[in-house]
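Input record (Table S2, row 279):
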Amino acid sequence: MHVLWKDKIVERDTVKIDIEDRAYQYGDGLYEAMRVYNSKMYMFDEHFDRLDRCAKEIRLDLPFTRAELKANLEKLIAVESIKEGEVYLQVSRGVKSPRDHHLPLPGTVEPVLTANVITIERDVEAQEKGHTSCIVQDQRWLHCNIKSLSLLGNVLSLNEAVEKGYDDALLVRDGYFTEASASNLWFVIDGKLRTHEDGNLVLPGITKIKLREIAKSLGLEVVEKAVPVTMLDQVEECFASNSVHEVMPIVEIDGKPVRDGKRGPITKLLQDKYIEATL
Ligand SMILES: Cc1ncc(COP(=O)(O)O)c(C=O)c1O
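Output record (pyridoxal-5'-phosphate complex):
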């Protein structure tokens, strides 16, 4: 298997990561996960824009330009002969030795890019059947808009849900739904789409950008305002969105079915239109 390491495509087992790499020691770095459809990266520019913004927020100098990253990832997709898949890339701040919390001075560390690409296929069955979920208190930090490598909050939330027998965790902070463990969260209430507004409490999803466009083209109203848990009995449909799972119906919350416990019609319509947009 080939991977991208810094600016080279190499065999995976030749990659060397230093034990004092800050991603390894502090989770000090960023990542992106994007879909490949028909051997092409989907919404690469939007993913790059987010990475670039996050890099500025954590004061990390990306060691590549947009064009260089795109060209190298395209090469990797070609070398690995991927048709339908997922690109995962991460950028560590680099190696600082000896270990020290303080950010290294600019120019004194070399950020480290790694990326791999795998084949994945759309999980048609799950997209029809939907996911069950439970509410978990959102205990993450207050910079959820940064796609940080430090995902322990998300990991432990999902684990709590899975240990209780659910597929996903719906995160709630101060009585309001924020997002799911690895996706943005949407509700249909009174025929309108509702999702948490962008800001520091959620990741501004790339799938969310596309769904806004699709909803607009369908004449569906999107209200970007957090939904309080107290509105749960008014929820007609619920779904989660991310690049990998696309539009995933949430059919059960805390043991209670959402509506009739089946994928709702607006969710199905958005799923179909989203898939159409990837062709
Ligand atoms: C916490 C969280 N929110 C939202 C998303 C959706 O992001 P995107 O649509 O860019 O994949 C993700 C994706 O991994 C995520 O981890």
